Amino acid sequence: MNLPLRCIINEENLSVAWAKTFLEAVEKHRRDLSPLFLTVHGFDSGVVKEDSVIREALDRHLEANCNTVANTIFPRSLWNPNKSRNQLFDRYIKILPWVRKCPANRYGVYFERLIAFQENVENGNQLEHIIHTYLEGNHRMSALQAIIFDPLRDHTDQRQRGFPCLQSVAFSLIGKDGLSIIGFYPHQHLLKRAYGNYLGLCRLGEFMAHEFRRELVEMNCVVGKETLEESMNTVTQLAQILKSRLSQLGEGECK
User: What is residue 238's predicted lDDT score, i.e. its pLDDT?
Assistant: First the structure.
């Protein structure tokens, strides 16, 4: 039986982590990595490290910018760290009708679920509740989590649905002043979505660490099945670019 391939990635650079995951699937001719455990622990004052060569190669292949996917998890362009977090929440709610007009967002958006899980519900802003709970001195780990999947809306009989792939996020206190974020995905597309998802989780973690008055030191992503959705022959050129770049950086293959 040709079982899916388990993959464990632990890197200091987000781009390198994604590239090694991608090459693990391509070079071993495995369309599914199941499960995938990915950790990025290289941050510069809470900002994740990236490699411009890898990032630009992926953006060119996709003919899109990974920021588009990342913004569905955390719209960093709307956030001013020097202003109250309420400004971010208010700005996002104001543009939400426009965001919903995109066909890809017809079922919802991740950041919407995080700050407005249900409309007209007082405690619908999960991030505000988590931040308030923490700052009031309640550091119970099970309180520092937010859910995306809503069974009342998302349990359907559709063969293909898309949103939401991200099920939940949680935050863990690391040492005296560190914070880690973990995202759980039952399924994720390796080429079209994974990099943007990892980037979005890092940015959400950066925001939460800022509000916790801590520093983001680690991003973890657990994926039940990471799927390479394109045929192998269509990604050959991208794979060669990534392998060459990892060699230049002195990075070995995924183990």
Answer: 96
Q: Which residues are within 8 A (CB) of 47 and not within 5 positions of it... i.e. 6 or more apart?
A: 206
Q: Is residue 9 part of a domain?
A: yes
32 CB-side CA count, 13 A: 9
- What CATH code is carried by the domain that includes residue 225? 3.30.572
Report if pTM > 0.85: yes
User: Vertex 6, ends 189 and 8: CA angle to 5°?
Assistant: 85
d(Cα 112, Cα 215) in Å, to the nearest integer? 24
Strands 43-44 and 178-189: unpaired
Give the separation between CA 53 and CA 74, rounded to whole angstroms. 24
Residue 187 domain flag: yes
Instruction: Report residue 196 as tokens.
Output: 């943007």
3-state SS class at 146: strand
Per-residue pLDDT tens digits for 188-246: 999 999 999 999 999 999 999 999 999 999 999 999 999 998 888 899 999 999 999 99
Neighbouring CB atoms inside 10 A of 31's CB total 18
C-alpha to C-alpha distance for 85 and 29, rounded to whole angstroms: 45
The CA-CA-CA angle for residues 120, 181, 41, to 5°, reads 155
pLDDT digits (tens, 9 = 90+) for 98-108: 998 888 888 88
